[in-house]
Structures are given as C-alpha cells and as structure tokens.
# Entry
Amino acid sequence: MPNITLSMSLEEIKALILQLPPHELRALMDAIEEHAETIGMMQLAETSFAEWNEEGEDIYDAEA
# Structure
C-alpha cells in the first residue's frame, strides 16, 4: 500500500467523512475506535516496561 501524505485541515477531513453513507461511516467509526483502544493499551503497557530502561538493565539488549 503506498504511503500518501495529505495537507488537509481537520475541518476538511470532517467534511469529507460526513459525506460517507451511514454504513461506511459506522465502519470507519468502528475502525477508529479499535485503533484508539489499541493505542491506549500500548501506552498502558509501556509503563510496565519502564524498569527495563534503568541503568544496568542492558541484559535485555544483549543479542543471543
């Protein structure tokens, strides 16, 4: 899938999204919700690994 960069304002994106038919709008909302939940869980999990960033914990960086 090609990587595309757009220069659009948030308002322009909203206007385009609101033109979607209801079933596509619902599918987009579901995808955004799932993505947001994943990001939230990843950010929460990062706090569990903070101890690995401490000095002397470089054993985790060793190659087998």
